[in-house]
Fold this protein.
Amino acid sequence: MLRMACEGEHEEAPYWLAEALRRLGRTEEADRWLRVAAEAYPDVLAQYGEMARLAIRDPG
């Protein structure tokens, strides 16, 4: 489901997919998705108010 969310351009999904892959020991694939998450990070932050931004994890 996370992979489908990433492909559907849900901007927060790449971070969570990378976290799941890392926990499964698939670090090479996780690194690729973390790069995607890092690119989307400014856009993700722009969607939230000042207080909510504090809860958004920085993939970098």
